[in-house]
Amino acid sequence: MHTVQPGTLLSFLRLLCRLRGFAVVGQALTVLIVTRLMGVPLDPAPLWAGIGFLAAFNIVVTVRAMRAREVRPGELFAHLAVDIAVLTWLVGWSGGLENPFSSLFLLPIALSILSLPTAWVWATAAASILGFGLSVVFGRSLPHVHSMMGDTFNLHKAGMLVNFLVSAAVLLIFLVRIAALWRARERELASLRERFTRNEGIVALATHAASVAHELNTPLATLTLMVDELAANQAVAREDCNTMRAIVDQCRDRVRALAAPAIDVDKTSLVNLEDVIDRWQLVRPAIELRRSGSIAGHERVDPAVGHLLQTLLNNAADASAQSGSQQVDLALEFGDDILRGEIRDYGPGFAESAPMLPGTLFRTSKPGGLGIGLALSHATVERLGGELTMQPPSEGRGTRVAFRLPATVTP
Predict the structure, then answer these.
(1) What is the rounded CA–CA span in Å between residue 18 and residue 26?
(2) Of 122, 143, 164, which one is at a domain's C-terminal end?
(3) Which of 44, 131, 148, 34 is nearest to 92 (CA)?
(4) Is 321 helix (H, G, I), strand (E, B) or coil?
(5) Which residues pair with 288 in a beta bridge?
(6) Number of folded domains in the chain?
(7) Is 26 among the domain residues?
């Protein structure tokens, strides 16, 4: 069964109000031209009454449509029913079946097919047939006239031409709008499908990572004891052993955090970004990290932000290493309740014809890379309600990856 989304119905309703406004102007001009310029002996009072009612109705419903957030199919059908009723009244008072504009009863049916569920389309068709029948049975015959257009038949042919142009214009406007909405929905669906595929892969990856974390916990504990014994027995290498111990402790903490169940973030689970950067430097001591900006007073953030920063720094360090560079630039700034960060590497960059965002799992340009870092980063920023962008630097080689996160990720 044909169904339509509520947001689409509201868009249709607003478009219908605009079309009705044009219809009111067109009807008024038609009455003026036919009764005054062409001298057709029609009773103008009923015609102007119908046009006036439609104009007043359109003003009221336009105000309502601009304020509404959603529309039900029944309301949109009621609008079309009013249009059909007024059209029945106008056609009945201006010739009935002889009126060249009587085929306009097809327009509400065409519009309903494009905007309403199937049941309401049949209701609109029934209303249009009823309106056409009433205008034929009870309509006043078009009087025989001689005007600048010739006799009644020539006048009828001119009216049919105008009717065709009006119908074509209305359908063109409506169909163009429908096509634009359809393309927008297709783009949205494509984006949702891509996001679903990526998130499904991330969930599978997380499940696997949790099981691996449980498996690694015991070996890491054993390795910690071995490093402690080595440090006690080898006094000369004690400094290196302490560094190894710090790295092992960091890995063990990360494994335990990975294996722990997800909980709501509170102040006790926040992490310090400066500590995150220090731990990263401990693991990547060969990298020259150039800092800029300040987040003083806002260092504590959601743990996911720490994971994000570590992932982006690792990606940047690996990219710089591909070009023989050991430099990575990091800019962090907090202002206007927004945490802004930018990481620049000095690697080979990326092809403009194949941008890497949004990230896709298991796609990488690094030798031996797993292809999950950028996808996880994009998913993290998306979950936190932020924005992640990737651009080439203003000068030189490399890549600039920037993120913006709302203040909700900080206390």
Answers:
(1) 13
(2) 143
(3) 131
(4) helix
(5) 327
(6) 2
(7) yes
CA–CA separation, 322 and 347 (whole Å)? 6
φ/ψ (deg, to 5) at 387? -145, 135
Which amino acid belongs to residue 38?
Answer: M
> Which tokens sit at 148?
């600048």
On whether residue 258 sits in a domain, the answer given is no
Helices 6-32 & 44-67 angle (0-180, nearest 10):
150
**Tens of pLDDT along 221-267?**
666 676 677 666 665 566 667 677 677 776 766 666 655 554 444 44
Q: Tell me whether residue 78 is in a domain.
A: yes
pLDDT digits 0-9 by tens, 28-48: 988 888 777 777 778 889 999
Does some domain include residue 193?
A: no
Nearest Cα to 127, choosing from 141, 142, 144, 109? 109
Range of the domain at 108: 6-143
DSSP per-residue codes, 224-279: HHHHHHHHHH-STTHHHHHHHHHHHHHHHHHHHHHHSPP----GGG-EEHHHHHHH
Residues in contact with 202: Cβ distance below 8 Å, sequence separation at least 6, in sequence order = 361, 375, 376, 379
Q: Which DSSP symbol is given to 385?
A: T
Closest-CA residue to 163 (of 116, 115, 95, 76): 95
pTM of the model: 0.46
